[in-house]
Please model this.
Amino acid sequence: MRCWRVLVQWLPLAIAGCAQQPADSGVSPRLLLADIYWAFTGETYSSVDEFKKGVSDYHESLNIESKWRPDEIAIEEPSLRVLYVYWEGDEQLDATVDLVADDGQRFSTAELIFKLHNAVVHRLRDHDAVFFEGLIFEPSAKDASATCTLQLGS
Model:
């Protein structure tokens, strides 16, 4: 069911993203980190190390084979704009979060999801769709930041 939901959410974004790219750019959106299980609940974390432990504990509590590789490079970009949706009452709202890599070059998996969690948890923690299902990634063009769309499930 999870794979089907990701595909259904991803396909319209992929089509739209490809339509926005020049035909000869060779750049297309791709789904990243979909094998990381996480829920945007609770509070913010004070350090990446504390967050790494939180994700490891979460994977252990689910009794699954963990694909959590916190120190692997997730995205080779110095900055990233993440788009997501949330609800206020009956109204669906769009939001944007701008993240900057600590080393100014790239994001590790832990750094990316840690920063993303701390930036969005206050809006998402009380919603049904709080489960991380990956990021639709579009590499940066010459004069633009790389962009991701946060995929959430319930």
Summary: Residues 2-17+30-153 form one domain. The two ends are 11 Å apart (CA to CA).
